[in-house]
Amino acid sequence: METKDEIRKRISEKKKEFSESELKALSSTIMEKLEDNVVLKCAKTVLLYYSLPDEVFTHDFVEKWSKEKTILLPVVKGDELEIRVYAGSECMQKGSFNIDEPQGEAYNDLISIDAAVIPGVSFDRHGNRLGRGKGFYDRFLKKLNTFKIGVCFGFQLSEEIPHSEHDVAMDEVWTEDGYVSKK
């Protein structure tokens, strides 16, 4: 089995084979298919993420669905994630790791979150997730009792992700091919 570092390196190299426009086209396909997810359709409050250039692009999805749902985005605070309500792109500013983050008060009503869409460096078909290695999402997701959807490009799928009791598995994983796994 590949180590976490080996998987991260393999995925990083694979991403370099794609242009930004190719990744955005794949992202658009992923997000269009994700709109058919029943849990997401019915959700009133959704935790999303504001993508980095090498992640499944979510900016347009966030903007579109913020008109119909309460969209929450993560903010890095020290070693933890807190979440805040997305109030439009004009209310975003660069935060930790040069990630655009919403301003305003922390959103603490975690029980009201109906679904969470989570990025990852890699996922396997059992819903196991490999992040960037800092553990931000794993620590946060342990506090969250909601339906978790991992999103990634098809080339980011791995046969098996090494995991432990500290890791939080996704309920589903989606790629440009649609739904590919369930916990």
Walk me through this protein's architecture.
- This protein is of the alpha/beta class.
- The chain has 5 helices and 11 strands; from the N terminus they run H-H-H-E-H-E-E-E-E-E-E-E-H-E-E-E.
- Strand 1, helix 4 and strand 2 (70-77) form a beta-alpha-beta unit.
- The model has no long low-confidence stretch (mean pLDDT 93).
Question: What is this structure, in a nutshell?
Answer:
The chain contains five helices and eleven strands.
Number of strand segments: 11
Averaged pLDDT: 93
* Global outline: globular
Percent of residues in helical segments?
Answer: 10-25%
Name its key features:
alpha/beta, 7-stranded mixed β-sheet
What's the topology here?
Blueprint: H1 4-15, H2 20-34, H3 38-42, E1 45-47, H4 59-65, E2 70-77, E3 80-85, E4 92-94, E5 100-102, E6 115-119, E7 122-123, E8 129-130, H5 136-141, E9 147-151, E10 172-175, E11 178-182
Parallel strand pairs: 1-2, 1-6, 6-9, 9-10
Antiparallel strand pairs: 2-3, 4-5, 7-8, 10-11
